[in-house]
Design a protein that fits this description.
The protein is an all-beta fold. The protein is built from four helices and 41 strands.
């Protein structure tokens, strides 16, 4: 709700705010490119959101950034990893395939977070969020094929500073976040930040009348030692945990007449969800499973050393260690009965032979409708960096980076016809050398060029006791690959506040193993080949009228070769889907982004941002088909949905998706914010603060298999707030109303439940945190 400059199409966007009574916008800096720079001077499309902006918009999860930065397309995060997307491009990654980069790198204080980790989903104790759009492989590395998100957390200070924010809502969310920093003694400073939050999602299990909830707690402590002007050492420790109680998916489409497990099964929809009507307004599920949920525990450490080596040059070292323990229990069918036991009971077979044939809603004997996943994630990393001063003809950043990321995953399911018991351990070791230089060709003309050499060493072990009827098998292999990526930008300043740039960047996504594949022998898996990217962008950034107006515009065209994508493949005769990771022939996204922020008066700020994105598969032959049976009661062997056909392997049903829209890629997203300060009294001390913002996204196909039932309609979300601010700006009390017009929408859409529902185009979705209207009160205090 504060002036959000979620710069979408601009070359750089920042949440532009100013102090009360100031008629200019606040200066914004960015650090994600390895040095501190003025955002408007950097030839890259970016957005920066500060802590006030995040608090005003009730941001606590990375998915909440979707509305503030129109270029972002981030899926739900309640249970499972976050499929990251930007500018209409996403791998649609799923937590069953581990060790797979998401394409959008998340960094915390410059350290990359493993794609399988939940470290990057919590946005509670964060001071700033930087979003860099488009491929960032030169400085972002192997995981930044689509873009980069960098969290900057609170640092130690040599003066006492701090803040506290308390939030309570009408739907029983509470949050407390705080930070404090200051000196311990001369040359030794500290910072401490913590959060405790509990939120309820608008997802109701009607069987128990309970809502899915999430509890988060965390603590980050930093100690910084500056014995002199030439050396600085900063030590960071972080502990955080998150626990989710309840399931995250609801049914939005089930083919009429489809039955659970196979066509004609006695477990009908009337039995499976008697009180639920699947639709794009549904927020409920009905299940006796009360153990579904997720938990993760994080313990991280980081040591930053900085040396002034003379003449303005700085040598720095960042050593980091991350450890995360995840546990997840999934409700496999989310139906009002234990499906397999109810089938046995109605059929009068197995342990229910001679029984009454009733519905089983407690104490299942055959299968408890759950599957279990556990992950241990560790990452060790080291980065050395030399940064030159900027006041010279050629300034530069050069560095070396190493990381070792290991994921151990156990996945089990005891469903008799689709038992699952696998243990897979992928490990990736990356060694990189990088550099970027800014060459001043003339007073107002610069050439910015960068290069990075990446060397990736992959290995895995895969122990499959049973999966889709196959096993036991054991597979292990390794692969080494390298890539050279880089960028080249020509930058022209017309005035100190107006700049244009043109950029070409070459990016990549590394080789990867499909660790969710079904083994049929002990043979080694073949890695999915590297993805290669050519990116073109031109942009104009400017500040006008004594920096009261910021207006930025960028136009981009990004082309992907051997585009890596995941999706589920329905298997004939199977009640579970197979997760496929493969290379589509190609993909392309092109469009424009704009961002404006106007300080209309010292007390009025208006911000508008938007993104038009045209993201399509340029070649995708042999893509999995969405669902075999549109009418499960009239199944004809060899009959497939329109556009689908039997693949060359004689087993899988496939389709040609060349020219179709990428998943979760709305054509347009926009955000508008209006902020008004109303001074009270002649002294102008106390003030009322009004904020109103609206976010919009077009309808979009949400899945890569082009399922006609997985198109989410357009949605407009409006939020309003009214607050009272103290005379010294040290306190604010704000009442807010989010999703004022009560519009239901979803942050994740899937169709992997099509297999248990007779191989039909069944669609499930995860409701957003604000899929129902709610209000609240927030109190902010500052030292």
């Amino acid at each position: 709700m504060a002036a959000c400059v979620a710069a979408i199409l601009q070359p750089v966007t920042a949440r532009a705010e100013a102090a009360a009574g100031d008629d200019t916008l606040e200066e914004v800096v960015i650090t994600a490119q390895k040095r501190t720079e003025r955002l408007q001077d950097v030839p890259v499309s970016a957005s920066v959101l500060n802590s006030d902006s995040l608090a005003n918009s009730n941001v606590s999860d990375v998915v909440d950034l979707n509305k503030l930065v129109p270029s972002l397309n981030l899926n739900g995060t309640i249970n499972g990893r976050v499929p990251m997307g930007m500018r209409g491009i996403s791998t649609v990654s799923n937590e069953q395939a581990v060790g797979v980069p998401s394409g959008v790198a998340i960094m915390i204080d410059g350290v990359p977070v493993p794609s399988d980790s939940f470290d990057g989903t919590q946005v509670e104790d964060v001071q700033n969020v930087e979003v860099l759009k488009g491929p960032q492989a030169t400085l972002g590395g192997r995981t930044a094929a689509i873009g980069l998100i960098n969290y900057r957390t609170y640092n130690p200070t040599d003066t006492l500073q701090g803040g506290l924010s308390l939030t309570g809502t009408t739907d029983h969310e509470y949050r407390a976040t705080g930070h404090i920093s200051g000196p311990i003694t001369e040359g030794l400073d500290y910072s401490l930040s913590a959060f405790d939050a509990h939120r309820y999602y608008p997802i109701t299990n009607t069987f128990y009348g309970t809502k899915t909830s999430q509890a988060d707690q965390g603590l980050r402590a930093k100690l910084e030692w500056k014995p002199n002007d030439l050396f600085d050492a900063k030590l960071t420790f972080r502990h955080a945990k998150s626990e989710v109680d309840g399931f995250n998916f609801v049914y939005v489409h089930v083919v009429p007449g489809a039955t659970l497990f196979f066509p004609g099964s006695p477990v009908t929809q009337a039995i499976a969800f008697p009180d639920i009507t699947p639709s794009w307004q549904n927020l409920d599920y009905d299940s006796p499973v009360n153990t579904a949920g997720h938990s993760n525990f994080d313990n991280d450490a980081q040591l930053d050393l900085s040396f002034d080596v003379g003449n303005g040059y700085t040598l720095s070292s960042t050593t980091a260690y991350q450890h995360e323990n995840q546990r997840q229990i999934q409700d496999l069918f989310a139906t009002a009965v234990y499906g397999f036991d109810t089938f046995f009971s109605i059929a009068g077979i197995g342990p229910y032979a001679g029984g009454s044939g009733g519905l089983i809603t407690s104490n299942p004997i055959v299968f408890d409708d759950t599957q279990h996943q556990r992950e241990l994630i560790t990452q060790k990393s080291e980065e050395l960096k030399l940064v030159s001063p900027t006041d010279q003809a050629v300034s530069f950043v050069v560095g070396a980076f190493y990381s070792d990321t290991k994921v151990s995953m156990w996945y089990t399911r005891t469903l008799p016809p689709a038992a699952l018991n696998v243990f897979v351990v992928p490990e990736t070791k990356t060694t990189d050398l990088y550099g970027r230089a800014t060459i001043k060709l003339a007073t107002n003309t610069s050439l910015v060029t960068g290069l990075r050499l990446n060397d990736d060493e992959l290995n895995y072990t895969y122990q499959q006791t049973i999966y889709n009827g196959e096993g036991p098998f054991y597979s292990a292999s390794s692969s080494n690959s390298s890539a050279v990526v880089g960028d080249l930008s020509l930058q022209q300043k017309f005035t100190p506040d107006v700049m244009a740039y043109a950029t070409y960047a070459r990016g990549y996504s590394p080789e990867v193993y499909n660790t969710a594949a079904t083994l049929t022998s002990n043979a080694a898996l073949d890695p999915v080949p590297q993805e290669h990217i050519n990116h073109f962008e031109i942009g104009v950034k400017g500040q006008y009228f004594d920096r009261a107006l910021t207006a930025n515009l960028s136009v981009f065209d990004t082309r992907y070769q051997n585009y890596q994508i995941q999706q589920y493949n329905l298997l004939p005769g199977q009640i579970t889907s197979e997760l496929v990771l493969s290379s589509a022939g190609g993909a392309e996204t092109k469009g424009l982004e704009f961002d404006t922020s106007w300080r209309a008066t010292p007390n009025t700020t208006v911000s508008v941002s938007g993104a038009y994105m045209d993201a399509k598969f340029t070649k995708y032959i042999g893509a999995p088909c969405a669902g075999y049976n549109e009418d499960p009661l009239l199944v004809t062997p060899g009959t497939y949905p329109a556009g689908c056909y039997l693949g060359s392997d004689g087993i899988n049903v496939v389709q040609d998706l060349t020219g179709t829209t990428m998943p979760n890629a709305p054509k347009f997203k926009g955000y508008a914010d209006f902020q008004q300060r109303i001074p009270l009294g002649a002294g102008g001390g106390l003030a009322l603060l009004f904020d109103g913002n609206v976010s919009y996204r077009d309808k979009a196909q949400m899945l890569p298999d082009n399922n006609p039932n997985s198109i989410m309609g357009s949605v407009t979300i409006a939020n309003f707030s009214l607050g009272l601010s103290g005379a010294d700006g040290k306190w604010n009390v704000t009442a807010f109303l989010n999703n004022a017009f009560d519009k239901a929408y979803y942050t994740d859409v899937e169709d992997f439940w099509g297999s248990p529902w007779s191989n039909t185009a069944t669609v499930i979705a995860q409701p957003a945190r604000d899929a129902k209207r709610y209000g609240g009160i927030r109190v902010d205090l500052k030292l």
